[in-house]
Structure formats: C-alpha cells, structure tokens
Amino acid sequence: MLRPRIIPCLLVKDGGLVKTQKFSEPKYVGDPINAVKIFNEKEADELIVIDIDATRYAKDPDLKLLQNLANESRMPMCYGGGVKTVSQAKAVVSIGIEKVALSSIVVENPNIISNIADEIGSQSVVAVLDIKKKKLSSKYEIWTHNGTKNSKLDPVDFSLELQSLGAGEIVINSIDHDGMMDGLDFPILEKIYNQLSIPMTIVGGVGSLKDIEEAVQKFKYIGVGVGSFFVFKGKYRAVMINYPTIEERDHIVANTLL
Questions:
Q1: What is the mean pLDDT of residues 192-200?
Q2: How many domains does the chain have?
Q3: What residues make up the domain containing 208?
Q4: Which of 45, 51, 130, 178 is catalytic?
C-alpha cells in the first residue's frame, strides 16, 4: 500500500556533510557515513544524498563515496550531483543506489530523462527542480547549478514535460525556504502536485513534525524531504541527528486515512 515517505536529505560537499540556508553558506555538520548509520538505526523510510558542488564545478559523481554510502545504507537511497550521461546513471545504480536524481542536465537536455529511463527504468529516474519565487511577483522559476543560474522555466509546466518524458518522480526543492525551518511553500507545491500522476517529493522549510503532518494531510501519499530539522536541535542549532519515532510516524500516517 502507498504511504507517505519521510526522507532525510543529506548535502555533501568535499566528502563532508553540510547544511545550507537558501543554498548558500554551507556549514560542516559531520561525516555522511555516520549520518547514514544513525538513520539506519532510526529506520528512515528513504534517503536523498546530493553533492551540491558536482554540477556547479563540473565534477563527476564520487563513486567511491557513493559505494561507501550504499554499503552502509539499509534504506532506499537517491543520489544527485554531476550525473550528466546514461553511463554515469548506470554506474550509480550499479553500486546499489536505487534512484538517480537529475537537475541541471534536464533543463539543458530534457530528453536525457527518456534516455536514462530506457536503460535503468523510469522508477529509478528522479527529476529535481530547484525553484525560487520571482521578486515582486507570484510566479516561480527553476534555478540550476546550486541556485546560481536562472532558467526562467515555469516549474508547473516543466514538471509535466518531464513526467511525459519518463521521469518516475519529481522533487521540488524550495530555494527560498532551504534551511530556514519556516514551513513549506504550499501554494506552489499544490499547483505542481495537482498536475502530476507520478510520485512527488517536497523539500525546503520543514521545521517541526507539524509541518510534516500538514504536508501529509494536504497531499496524502507525498514524499517529505527534510534537512535542517533532522540535523539541528534547539535555537542554537546544535548538531544532533534525529528522526521521528515509530509512534510519531504512525500518527502522521494514520491521518492520511481520515
């Protein structure tokens, strides 16, 4: 049976685990291998790992790091960062990572979705769209290269295009809410969600279990990606990896049936 997914999102830079705010000022928060071990113990639903510098600096995926992460992980894992070709996507899944996330490359070449899906299956192809609201406007645009380049594409229309090309999942990542723990940007998320027939995951803004619960109540079988809230604790943002207990998750899931 389908159920909502609560997904820790780990950002990697130079082999270390970092956290950002609005895609800037990455702060080192520890070893990603240790974080995976903790999320294993807490029985996380799934894991997203993104190398935030790979595309921006034209680096290939760090397959050695990914192999270490895959060997340690006991949960499904999605990796994004630097994947630009079919052969790179096949290399990532060949080491035990279930999903490949594509971001900047789908803006440059949307047909890469179909090419990779033909080789590894649509269920393993995830399109990640980093979105930002235009100043003095109600419109949103897709940004690439770690939030440094504006494609000026509309995220609703482009999500539909990527779905038609064979994407198995769409991840919507809010640049404005990244690391702020100030709540999710529901109006634009609802517009995109209502147009899709494939799974969708939303990232950016979760600051409490209530935020997760609100997302599940609105969207039912959604993926809720969480970064800072699962890494920091308290007003001083002390580093402490955390994840909802089984009882807390059961309470959230039960609300999808109401």
A1: 97
A2: 1
A3: 5-257
A4: 130
